[in-house]
Amino acid sequence: MLELxxxxxxxxxxxxxxELRKRITALTGHVxxxxxxxxxxxxxxxxxxxxxxxxxxxxxxxxxxxxLSLTADGKRELRRRxxxxxxxQITDENRWFVLLTFLRHLDDxxxxxxxLRRRxxxxxxxxxxxxxxxxxxxxxxLDDPFRRGVLTVARATSQAELTWLTATLAELExxxx
Length: 177
Known about the structure:
11% strand; Arc Repressor Mutant, subunit A; mainly alpha; two-stranded antiparallel sheet; 63% helix
């Protein structure tokens, strides 16, 4: 999630580390707070891989700042990750939201649609957080009001996403034909 966020935000504009951290925290901070101890090693890995560059620029006050920019290889890497996301980026809601945030940078509507179809297939699979043996339980079967609440909210969220996915796929299919 962190590397995809770094690549995605830098695809949009060169940024310094503090601004990157603010944007990533706004996107994922409620799930995974981003500290300097994780951000800067990730930046160094991407820099070492040739995916971003660093340049010293004068700051708005007096202190110079290290501004990060994507290289051409960094832009290609972002598009590669967007076009072929790992399964966890499709199935894990938080990772999915990060992927979805930057999916617009994948210029091909057919490729965007393929990613959305993978998510749609995942959401259409019967699932539950709670089981009776191997059988998934439905909200109506639970006596526990809190677990029933979890399933009720998850079902409503999934239904809203299914509606959005179906409409967006139709738009993308029109755009690519």
